[in-house]
Amino acid sequence: EVNTTIADGQYTVTMTGKQQYLFAITSIPDFSAKDFVWSMDATVIESAASAGDMLLELSVREVDGLSGPHYSFSIFNDGTSSGEVWPTKKYQDVIEFWSYESNNAISLDPGVVNNISLEVNGSTFTLYVNGQKIKDVTDTTITEAGEVSFSLAMYEPDETLKIAFDNLVITAIP
Asked: Fewest Cβ atoms nearer than 10 Å: which of 13, 77, 125, 159?
């Protein structure tokens, strides 16, 4: 079950898992780019997700939407992160850049504002959380412009998550 609202300038998503692995995708409408900086604030308002059972993912250069080739960068509610490229539509083809690396800059705890930033510049991708560089990778698998989206996922049923997003800014890199 997923509900979304916009109030006081914040986009809020409330999810309640009715099955194992529930996710909600929000695409940025009418936006496609190759090189840019994406920044937004994410604040968990309420969460019953166990540590490591919830993630926030930024997806970029979605050539054929999220189900096609794209890059994805995730932060988890246990303070870890990951990054990968989907060169095809097949999950078996996913190439991980890093997986479940811990970083004390990440805190998806209720009431904590996390500023999440992703710089996409040519073949370099740099993820920041709260001003701290989490990781940068270089990859040339997908070189064309594409759509962007962010996703939320919970891995276990009967868990609830309410998260607010604010201050979304996407700035082109010339």
From this structure: 159
Closest CA to 24 of 50, 56, 69: 56
2, 4, 11: which is closest to 168 by C-alpha? Answer: 11
Q: How far is CA 29 from CA 110, 149, 150, in A?
A: 28, 9, 12
Nearest to 84 by CA among 71, 74, 93: 71
Q: What is the pLDDT of residue 48?
A: 84
* Interval 146-154 mean pLDDT: 92
Q: Are 152 and 164 in contact (CB under 8 A)?
A: no
Is 27 a residue whose pLDDT tops 90?
Answer: no
pTM over cut 0.90? yes
Alpha-carbon distance of 158 to 160, in angstroms, equals: 7
> Could you tell me which residues come within 8 angstroms of residue 76 by beta carbon, excluding any fewer than 6 positions away?
52, 54, 55, 82, 100, 106, 108
88-125 pLDDT per residue, tens: 988 889 999 999 999 999 999 999 999 999 999 999 99
